[in-house]
Amino acid sequence: MDIAIIITYTLALLIIFMYSLAQLNLLFNYLKSRKQADTSPTFDFSKKEEIPHVTVQLPVFNELYVMDRLLDNIAELDYPKNKLEIQVLDDSTDESVITTAKHIEKLQQTGLDIKHICREDRTGFKAGALKEGLKIAKGEFIAIFDADFLPGKNWLLQTIPYFKDQNIGVVQTRWGHINRDYSMLTKIQAFALDFHFTMEQVGRNYKDHFINFNGTAGVWRKTCIEDAGNWQGDTLTEDLDLSYRAQLKKWKFKYLEEVETPAELPVVISAARSQQFRWNKGAAENFQKLYWKMLRDKTVPFKTKFHSFFHLLNSSMFLLVLLVAVLSVPVMYIKNSNPLFSWYFNVIAFFALSTVIFFFCYWFTFKKIHGKGFWNFMEYIKMFFTFFSIAMGFSVHNSMAVLEGHFGKKSEFIRTPKFNINTLKDSWKGNKYVSKNISGNTIIEALLMGYFGFALYSAFKLQDFGLFLFHIMLFLGFGFVFFKSVTSKF
User: Fold this and answer.
1) I want to staple 203 with a disulfide (CB 3.0 to 4.6 A). Which of 30, 47, 110, 260 is the partner?
2) Is 148 a catalytic residue?
3) Same domain as 125, residue 214
4) Has residue 330 been placed in a domain?
């Protein structure tokens, strides 16, 4: 039994270490990209004949609290009205359908080409709505925004020009966060997303590795969507699915780090849970659907296959982290009861380098957004350990999602509730879309909080503090997720 535990523990640590090396390579790519000027060809919008027709798609479902804000914001986009079409792809089943229709009528009276498109059923969920709208879209290019996104007035003028390169199929922008400082929950979500939208997206795109359209705040070439097989609703992350199919068809993606598109982060843990579940399960589904096809494609470079492996398996790291965490307690007892393994524990200490790599990678992202300096670095250290603690606290919930994705269990597309939270004074209380149910995983999270409390006790009992910080982070992480899940219901 001891040997089985040690082998499993070591293999999990090894894969996490390989993942950290992939991240380190992306950091090197990111740093190199900052030294290179962008020489991409662009449309000259001073010439009317170079201004293409654009369709903006707004896929929405029961967005009562943010629809007015969304529609007013999109109506302000700076683009020739005769070249702009807006489709509100409304699958709503509540009273927001009526209020949205009235708001659209008012905007139509201003001369704006905006249509309210409602389907009879939600087949394919968001993917189905986008596909339905595409059938009648006038635009050569399709900009997509979720209901909680607020693009700047010049957003189309910043993105559409890059499509002069006929090989560009997608232009994706970086997400911003209008309520980053609302709570610890929003801060750690912003911390994670900033890393993805800064280092990961730039690092992959710079070396022409596969990146993903992030479901919103980006533009597609209509012919690219059609050539790649159109939107498909067989995974929970239709954006990642279509992105990989398009790049397998040799379409290029353009990522614009400097173009920020502000959005609202989930402010209640049940909303964050539903979003995390969808993203993590969808990534696992897409690994099963697409990676083996990519692996067999001889035209895809080895390094791109390597990065795509960890890109699509990104969410599966939660499963490995949970495995390492749970096994770390028996490993601590094995270490102290069997001196024959002493050499082994000296060897696996090397894998602590993974944490050091993550620490440096996240720091470069943090200082790009928040700036350098001693006090910012101190703030970063606090955020780094807080983020990883809470991320580990989510590992049970996210591991369940990953397992469902890999084993092919199907589930509905569960939307993330929007709140219209703009300032610290705004409250989410009373939001009709917030789930009142407590997840069954919450009980497991409570048990694991107790389990890692026992691990802390064991450190004093055995006088072995090698994993003490790790176990403190696990105890606090599972405690945070458990108590937030329970208290947010009242």
Assistant:
1) 30
2) no
3) yes
4) yes
Q: Between the CA atoms of 426, 428, 430 and 431, what dihedral angle is there, to the nearest 10 degrees?
A: 120
Question: Is there a single domain that holds both residue 136 and residue 72?
Answer: yes
CA separation for the pair 9, 152 (Å, rounded):
48
Strands 168-177 and 114-118: unpaired
Which domain does 233 fall in, by range? 46-191+210-268
DSSP assignments along 243-304, one per residue: HHHHHHTT-EEEEEEEEEEEEPPP-SHHHHHHHHHHHHHHHHHHIIIIIHHHHH-TTS-HHH
- Of 250, 274, 232, nearest to 416 by C-alpha is 274
Please tell me whether residues 221 and 356 are part of one structural domain. no
Query: Is 142 contained in some domain?
Result: yes
Provide the 3-class DSSP secondary structure of residue 128: helix
Q: Maximum Cα–Cα distance for the chain, whole Å?
A: 81
**How many angstroms separate the CA atoms of 146 and 60, rounded?**
7
Identify which of 59, 130, 120, 129 has the alpha carbon closest to the alpha carbon of residue 88.
59
CATH number of the domain residue 169 falls in = 3.90.550.10
CB proximity list for 355: less than 8 A, separation 6 or greater: none
pLDDT at 3: 85
Which pLDDT tens digit goes with each residue over 232-270? 999 999 999 999 999 999 999 999 999 999 999 998 888
Based on the fold, state whether residues 332 and 259 are members of the same structural domain.
no
- Split into its structural domains, the chain has a count of 2
User: Where are any strands of DSSP class E within 83-167?
Assistant: 84-90, 114-118, 141-144
| Cβ within 8 Å of residue 351, ≥6 positions away | 13, 14, 16, 17
Q: What is the pLDDT of residue 23?
A: 97
pLDDT value for 421: 62
d(CA 267, CA 182): 8
Q: Both ends of the chain: CA-CA distance in Å? A: 44
Query: Is residue 59, in this structure, part of any structural domain at all?
Result: yes
Give the chain's residues under pLDDT 50.
Answer: 428, 490
Q: Looking at 90, 91, 146, 194, which residue is catalytic?
A: 91
6 contacts 178 by C-beta, under 8 angstroms: no
Instruction: Please list, residue by residue across 428-438, b when 16 or more beta carbons sit within 10 angstroms of its beta carbon and e when fewer do.
Output: beebebbbeee
Whether 14 and 85 map to the same domain: the answer is no
| Rounded distance between C-alpha atoms, residue 263 and residue 422, angstroms | 10
Query: Quick one: which of 168, 190, 188, 167 has its CA closest to 177?
Result: 190
Token look-up 């029961």 returns: 62
239 is catalytic: yes
Q: Read off the pLDDT of residues 103-120 as tens digits, 9 standing for 90 and up.
A: 999 999 999 999 999 998
Q: Is residue 160 part of a domain?
A: yes
Residue in 90, 146, 239, 241 annotated catalytic: 239
